[in-house]
């Protein structure tokens, strides 16, 4: 019966899959035609973005490969401090359309290689000086194959990278002013904003890392969609970070960075030491306390219950277990190899009706007179001086930089990356001192792209609805598919259970958990009742006894029943 319904399910599932494939095929054929028409329409609308060059320090759409090749410089450097074989910046950069085409003539800069160091950079049209205008950098990243481990951040390179010759040497140690953008490895994902701050007192440069974004940004590494990253740093030392035009982090250069821009005014005096006699113990043992006269440390914790009485009918002379009188020495038992044969132990049937067998021992109870080791009580320490802390002194390295915004001027911008996933696509990079210009640039680039993507996904849905409207049998297929899925789930969850119920001998678990399964006499053929009982109580038995059962059972008829339990499982590998 069960077999028949299973076959029916499989047949039904097959039929539904075949018809569903037909629907998908038909939908695809129609969809493809429509999509082709749409792409042509949209492509006519896409133009590489134009922006007034006066308003920007750099605006790069990567659509003009010839212009890109003139402007951008691939690094010929080697990374410092790594193995010679992998030190070269030999990762490949290509101008390509996205792997999922959005607009026909929209190209991006693609890091096509994985697990290689790769660096590329360009000079700004004019250097950016941090004075009275905000610094704005914005760019798009599409992790076309997702990202497990690797960066997609941008580096704004400091004064000193003023020529193309400098850029050919671009490597991990090239001084940057700001590093910004996504970076991930494993579960650790970051949206960096790091700036390099110059100590006004001694000129040392130190990296300052911004606090974390206010929300987790897991999707940008998974959804393979274009995302827009914007950093705005203002002359009032505030900053904002936007992803897809939504603020995900904001704060102050003076307050939200580690280590902080300005060192603490006071520090612990490194020369101040805790005095020898400084007593930090809040409580001490009461020196005046003495052990009471009647405190007996030797009284035991447990004593024999003086009120316990041996139950009536206790069989002192009967052992709890006896050798199984019905066990037979296996015919292939070899006394030389296997030792002397002994029958397995079974419960002594004489004990079944009695309250107990063997020597009776009265139970033990907690000793009401038990006191344990005496300890003197604790009292407040009269010499307690509190927790010692070193004296505070003015910090000799103290300075106060009120204008961390006044960073080292930026002359170039580049990517210096290592990625475990290939096909990182960068697009529509802009550097400006006007937030409105960056917004305008996003409007004519990123926003167009997102609008096109959502039109495309809408139209797939719309087309499916329209197709179903024209072909009402689609609804029938959908309903049948739902039934089949519910049926399959029911079959998978409940089907296997009913199978094990119908044949309890297949599992030890059923035999142990459910006494009724074994109590059915007819199922157990000619197995003696004692052996079954031993199996039921198997888990409570001493391991030695189980072991005895298994070794003596050797190829006796018992082995073929469920009786031997653990012993049987242990034996099998030996024989095969
Ligand atoms: C500059 O001062 C900082 C402490 O503010 C110190 O860590 C660093 O070593 C100093 N650098 C030099 C070159 O003295």
UniProtKB/TrEMBL annotation:
PROSITE patterns: CALRETICULIN_2. GO terms for biological process: ERAD pathway; protein folding. Its main location: endoplasmic reticulum. InterPro entries: Calret/calnex, Calret/calnex_CS, Calreticulin/calnexin_P_dom_sf, ConA-like_dom_sf. It is found in: Endoplasmic reticulum membrane. GO terms for molecular function: calcium ion binding; unfolded protein binding. It is a single-pass type I membrane protein. Residues 1-26 form the signal peptide. The chain crosses the membrane at residues 473-494. Disulfide bonds join 149-185. It comes from the Eukaryota. Keywords: Chaperone, Disulfide bond, Endoplasmic reticulum, Membrane, Signal, Transmembrane, Transmembrane helix. Residues 314-323 have a biased composition (Acidic residues). Residues 253-332, 497-576 are annotated as: Disordered. GO terms for cellular component: endoplasmic reticulum membrane. It holds the Pfam family Calreticulin. Residues 270-285, 498-519, 527-544 have a biased composition (Basic and acidic residues). Belongs to the calreticulin family. Calcium-binding protein that interacts with newly synthesized monoglucosylated glycoproteins in the endoplasmic reticulum. It may act in assisting protein assembly and/or in the retention within the ER of unassembled protein subunits. It seems to play a major role in the quality control apparatus of the ER by the retention of incorrectly folded proteins. Required for embryogenesis and larval development under heat and ER stress conditions. May be important for germ cell development. Involved in neuronal necrotic cell death. This is Calnexin.
